[in-house]
Amino acid sequence: MIPLLSTEEFLAKVAPEKTNSYEQQKFLQAASNIIADVQEGGDQAVRSYIEKFDGKAPETFLVSKEERKAAWDKVEDEVIQALQHAADNIRDFHRKQLNNSRMMQADEDVISGQLYRPIDRVGIYVPGGTAVYPSSVLMNAIPAVLAGVEGVYMTTPVKDGEELAPILAVAADIAGVTNIYRVGGVQAIAALAYGTDSIPKVDKIVGPGNAYVAAAKKLVYGDVGIDMIAGPSEVAIIADESANPVFVAADLIAQAEHDTNARAFLMTTSQALADAVNQELVKQCKVLPRKEIATTSLQKKGACIVVGTLAEAFDVANRIAPEHLEIQVKDPLSYLSKVRHAGSVFLGHYTPEALGDYFAGPNHVLPTSGTARFSSGLSVDDFVKKTTYLYYTEEALREAGDDVIRLANQEQLDGHGLAVSKRLEEKE
Ligand SMILES: NC(=O)c1ccc[n+]([C@@H]2O[C@H](COP(=O)([O-])OP(=O)(O)OC[C@H]3O[C@@H](n4cnc5c(N)ncnc54)[C@H](O)[C@@H]3O)[C@@H](O)[C@H]2O)c1
Ligand SMILES: N[C@H](CO)Cc1c[nH]c[nH+]1
Ligand SMILES: [Zn+2]
Question: Transmembrane ranges (predicted)?
């Protein structure tokens, strides 16, 4: 089910796709055409792309206040409570990430510091092509609201112009989303980036999505900010002989069922475990509603390797820089220091990644496809900007002046030097 490969084959298969690969170029080209059309045609273009990819377009993109209110009666009380419980955990975790504006230096003659200010308007993309993700509503919106963002505009696709799944409206209310728009895909990213009559232009777009959405975010970056490229889900599991094959298989499937392009990797020191996991995968997939998706992605994108030591497994994991890294070994906490590149880490036999997907507190919007080498999961930091400030008295400038002028001379920027010397001359 999940191909058992040699080290060489494994590394080739897990390597992230290059931006200039044929596949990636195809997504970028498609996204680029749609973005250009939405910039030109606004709402009308958005509507025609919805009709092309998602069936009938909804009458209005904006979900009305009445629809949002009515949604609460359509969701079971226990489900609402579970969402609220998850939201509390996510809020508690993210509140601790908040930074306050602070002074770095506060001497008599020199004051310097850093202001933290929220972004005014953000767009949050909640994927919806093949599943409904209320958890992604919470994960995207809660840190934005905590950071102080005033306009949190959510977009998500609906099929055939149908009403928004009520649970998404409930999650949006719990999280504090300002407006919800029934628009998905590239057209949603373009509308948020450039604005249309009915969808406001935002300053930054966050949230995961499929390869088209990821390509669109890449293309609009610069005109607006983006959080990261969060594409198809991934899990890499490091397991020793103490791991339970039933748990390992379940966790591989949990990511594989997201998408036929989802990636699930197993690195183990035990051949017996690798064999048992494969048997389990077959067994568990049989009864899975999304078995087609899961089996396709496990076969197409999955990979398993038997390594000599756990050190080797960590070396491989750091090369993959996976979105999620599970460490199902004896004494898991002692291995945390070995992790150099991963979006989020799950330690031990009783910490399935699904716990983080829904409930525990850390964010589930995470860098995929090797981008954890240089980027981090969504946090309150994504919704604030830092502005530094500086105050010098005349005396302080006099003391620093010669050094500044010397450096300006080296760059042959005489105007810069004059900005200092003119001030010091006047009093001499
Ligand atoms: N990293 C995370 O935090 C996270 C969380 C949840 C989901 N995910 C991932 O997000 C992805 C969601 O993908 P999805 O497809 O279900 O939903 P999606 O909302 O990202 O994409 C659906 C949209 O894609 C567009 N589309 C479909 N075919 C197209 C085509 N040929 N050309 C242009 N546009 C097209 C349509 O407009 C459609 O509305 C999955 O890969 C899942 O693994 C990631
Ligand atoms: N595993 C996904 C991130 O890759 C997040 C998610 C949402 N719902 C279920 N899972
Ligand atoms: Zn998941």
Answer: none
